[in-house]
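User: For a reading group we're discussing how well predicted structures match intuition. Take Protein canopy homolog 1. Before you show the prediction, I'll give you the sequence so everyone sees exactly what went in.
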Amino acid sequence: MNDYKLEEDPVTKERTFKRFAPRKGDKIYQEFKKLYFYSDAYRPLKFACETIIEEYEDEISSLIAQETHYLADKLCSEKSDLCETSANHTEL
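Assistant: Thanks. Here is the predicted 3D structure of Protein canopy homolog 1, as structure tokens, for the group to look at:
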């Protein structure tokens, strides 16, 4: 969660979490991991994730029990309506 920060669109005031850190496959990943960032900036993301998990706990358990192939997409789009249906979510 430390790889994300909360940003606010200056025009719409919409708040979203944006990833700023490289992923393991990126060329700069090894250099980036040598750095240490101390920040409470990830706390809103952690709280948002915990809230979603609490709110959709039954749906999450049901999908896991069914061994759904597209668990992230089903949870994000169909069960919670938190995402657009065309999105591909691989990070859950």
